[in-house]
Structures are given as structure tokens and as C-alpha cells.
Input
Amino acid sequence: MTFYKNHKEKLELIKTGKLSLADNVKHFLKNIDDQKDLNAFNFVFRDEAIEKAKEVEQKIKNNSAGKLAGMVIAIKDVLAYKGHPLTCSSNILKNFTSLYTATAVQKLIDEDAIIIGKTNCDEFAMGSSNENSAFGNVLNPVDKTRVPGGSSGGSAVAVAANLCDVSLGTDTGGSIRQPAAFCGVYGFKPTYGRVSRFGLTAFASSFDTIGPFTKNVEDAALVMEVISAKDDNDSTSVDKIVPDFLASLKDERKFKIGIPKEYFADGLDEEIKTAVLNVADKLKLENYFVKEVSLPKTEYTIAAYYILTTAEASSNLARFDGARYGIRSKDFNDLNEMYVNTRVEGLGKEVKRRIMLGTYVLSTGYYDAYYRKAQKVRRLIKEDFDNVFKQVDLLITPTTPTTAFKLGEKSDDPLKMYLSDIYTTSANLAGLPGISIPIGRNSEDMPIGLQILSQQFDEEKILQLAKHIQDEVTN
Output
């Protein structure tokens, strides 16, 4: 039922009557039921998806269908979808229904995509393992004793376990790329401002981005083409022409590629290091220009990232207090007690930790020592990338320092958990686009991800190199 390689092939099968879209959706629904233990979905829109499939199939036959007609998509449960639950995998929003639809989701619907459900994630997108959800842990489909990565773990698993064609996730510090690497799928993080954040529940507003998980580069390019654009509802979205990402994949270009030495230092798993450098060596043999480069401020990325994002989170999450929406504690005597008790009952441990950290770094006496200094470091990290991109077009790095780790392995050591994002946070600090692509398995048969980064708004280059590696290097 999913014997097609990409969306183009699927559409052809539907057009020629070799594939029933309604049956295809039912197949995905059966897969979701059969693999319930993965816990990838918070909500499944069963009847709605089947009805939509019948409607879209008719449109395809009438030649009046949109670009994504027949594509079955799951969306992360931090994205608004009118009339459907929006919980952010948190108890504080467990009964909340969205009043409007996120721009990125609406763009999918407008092009006749079928939304099959909302995926599990770390609460309010805060986590690197999908172990911080009020709905319980998500399991890695390759090895159910391991984490799928976070925070978009459910979205990655939905694609890896064949529960849908494509999913949307969000990336604040690696939350698309890291789970993509852990689960062996493609995960694309666009340039900050390329995709509207309207309807995305904010974690850290100057970091958050929305992007797709796919089984191939072609579908990533197509979905990026659809969800990108300036949006009047989001003042941070950028008014730039959206390239024809899918058509640009046909361009064969020999890029100048940089290998940042700081990403291959101590702490990187040897098998991942070997796999990534093997890809670089193969590109050299194909006459790509490959050179070692330096990003000297890399060692400060985790510290700067966790100071700035927790500060923004403490501000953004102040609205969840029981006064306006979500749950309200029944045990209080005054307004202050209502705020405190609602948040104690409704928020999980990791979210509380980050709110407290953020409140601390923004407090009088610590603002200059932490927050202001971290903003300066962020600028220096961006300058590192600006300097490197004067020498090369693209960077190749490992996506993660290790493959997927065991459930519970890092739960008691937040710092160790935070360090699993060491190769991904820098792109969010600098607002750069990046992709994680699968390049093989290690000796324990766990997926290995390779990351490609570019200068802002150079997504075409990333996709072109990713396609070349997909078709010519790892096959």
C-alpha cells in the first residue's frame, strides 16, 4: 500500500487507478493501530481523514487537485488546527481546542494534503528525547528500548514507522534534525523567517521554526515549497521569493564544502565520525571541493542556547496560569495561589526547570551577567558562520554526537541531555537552515544522520546536495 518512492509516484498511481487513496489512508490507520505501543500520536482524525481522501481522490481524477493532493501528513501537537485539540503534550492544556489554524497547516490543507492526526512531543517542545510528554514516552521504531529524539519525536516516528507519508515538526535547537537522525528519516529545518510561525505555540520565539519530516529529499523540497512565504500574521516571516525547490533538485552543482573541525572533537561517536567523513571522501572523489574549516565559538553554543531559550520560554509560558484557558486548579484561596497551584499541577518537571532557569537569568542582578552576555555570544556565533560561508557554500557535520540512546539513560542528568543537541543548536542561534539525512547504520543497526548547513535562505543548495548524497553516495 506504500510501494511508492515519493509523492510524485504516489500521485501517478492514484491517477492511473492503481492506488485507492481511501485505502491508502486506511492502511496508515491500521499501521497506527498495529503500532500503538510506539505512542507516536496524541490524536488520530480517523473518519475525517477517510472522508478527505475520497474528496481529494475525486479532485485528482478531475485534474483540479493541489500540489500535495493525496499526501497524508501528521502534525506536531504544538501547531494549531481549528476545531481540533491543541495540548502541546501538556496537562495544562489537556482539554483545549484550537480556535484557528496555523498558517503552515492551512497551506498544506489548501494544497489538498490529508491531515491524519497530531503527534506526540516533549511538553511545549522542551526536550531531546520525547520523555517529557503528558501522553507518555514515544519509542524509537528501530529499537523500542531507545528514545526517538525530541522534541518532535512523534513526528519522526510517524514517518519512520510508515504511519503517514510526511509529518510537520518544529525545530528550536535541533528538534527536527535530531529525531530525524535517531529514527533514520529526513528532517528539514528552514531559515528562521522562511516559514510563518503563526499558530505555533511559542517556546522561544526568536529560535522556533517549522519544517517537514520525510522519507526522501523530493518530498521535503515539495512541502518546503508549499509552507514557505511571507505571512502578514507573523512579523518575523520574511518577504522573499520562494524558489521552486522541487525543480531546483535537477540542478547538478559541485559545491564548495566545509568540514568544521570543532564538530569532530572529543565526544563524537567513532562510527558516526567515520560515516560522515566517508561521505565527505566520496564527494572529494567526485571533484567536490572539500576543506576543513573552523567555527571557534562552537564551545559556547549550548550555554548561550539554554540561557536565551529558557529566558524566552519563561516569558512565553507566563500565559499558562489557569486564568484564560487550559486547566485551573480547584485548590486555591486567592489569585496568586491559583496561578501557582495551576502551574504546579499542569506543568511537567522539564518545563518548570526551564521556566525557573529563564526567570533567573532575566532577574535583576543576573540579566547582564547571563542574558545580555549570551546575546553577544549569539552574535559572535553568527559571525563565525558568516566568515566560513565566505570560503564555502555548505557545511557537512554529524547531526548528533551519538545514535539514539536508551530510554531513561539521560533523564537524571539534564546537562548530559542538553549536550545531545551540541551540533544542532548553533543553526538556531544563527538562524540558518539545515537538514539531517540518513547515511547508514552503526554496528548496533541504529541510524546515523548527517547534517548539511548553509547560509540563510540557501535552502536550495542544501536540498541539491542532500539529493545527490541520497541518490549517488549512500545508495
Notes: Residues 90 and 134 are 5 Å apart (CA to CA). The first strand starts at residue 41 and ends at 44. The chain has 16 helices and eleven strands. The longest helix spans residues 367-388.
